[in-house]
Task: inverse folding
């Protein structure tokens, strides 16, 4: 099973600033990585797939990078609606498909 | 636009079987190159993939749950079902259904809103 590790667990940032979230896989997942945003009380929402491709309707302030074992989600100029929990997920090696434990992005 | 809606009993007794359904609108569960998935999330915790079913009915499950999970398609109701046997408190979670592409396109979207299943006597 591919273990996904996200860091930090919690990130405190002021609105308008940028944020960088990290995800590391226990073995290479090539570019088969997705990012999701989950707001309180809601289902996760797909943000990024293929490590770098924004899903339909996702604002350009969200960007993904990386390949192999190390990945980054960058959010520029944080808006109030961006404060949420973010998960990475690999789909290179299955079963099972696996998620990171999440990074909570909170208002500073 | 594809929409998914989970439903289920809400409360299940330990050792019994949890049965959930995902009703799909805007697409047929037996058409196209798609997987239909169940993913669960205990309160305050992360996401765990439970299993998937292809439009042909073939299935694949999380090895950690494989002995207790069954997924099926109901074409007459356009639904995806999940049965989880011999439940314990550890199975208490929000259960989501989601769709994905196949092979190396297995990112999840859209998702249903989720249904909470509580295991308690």
Result:
């Amino acid at each position: 099973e591919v273990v996904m590790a996200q860091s930090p667990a919690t990130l405190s940032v002021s609105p308008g600033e940028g944020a960088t979230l990290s995800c590391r896989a226990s073995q290479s997942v090539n570019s088969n990585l997705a990012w999701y945003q989950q707001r309180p009380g809601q289902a996760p929402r797909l943000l990024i797939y293929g490590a770098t491709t924004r899903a339909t309707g996702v604002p350009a302030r969200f960007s993904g990078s990386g390949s192999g074992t190390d990945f980054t989600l960058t959010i520029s100029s944080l808006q109030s609606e961006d404060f949420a929990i973010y998960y990475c997920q690999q789909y290179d090696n299955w079963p099972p498909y696996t998620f990171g434990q999440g990074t909570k992005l909170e208002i500073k | 636009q594809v929409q998914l809606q989970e439903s289920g009993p809400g409360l299940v007794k330990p050792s019994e079987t949890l049965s959930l359904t995902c009703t799909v609108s805007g697409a047929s569960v037996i058409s196209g190159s798609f997987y239909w998935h169940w993913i669960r999330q205990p309160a305050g915790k992360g996401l765990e993939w439970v299993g998937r079913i292809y439009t042909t009915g073939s299935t694949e499950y999380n090895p950690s749950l494989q002995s207790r999970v069954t997924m099926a398609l109901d074409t007459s109701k356009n639904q995806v079902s999940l049965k989880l046997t011999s439940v314990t408190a550890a199975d208490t979670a929000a259960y989501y259904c989601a769709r994905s592409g196949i092979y190396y396109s297995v990112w999840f979207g859209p998702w249903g809103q989720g249904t909470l299943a509580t295991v308690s006597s």
The two ends of chain B are 39 Å apart (CA to CA). The interface with chain A takes residues 46-49, 60-64, 96, 100, 104-109, 111-114 of chain B (CB under 8 Å). Chain B has no helices and ten strands. The beta strands of chain B are 3-7, 11-12, 18-25, 35-41, 48-54, 59-61, 69-74, 79-84, 93-100, 115-119.
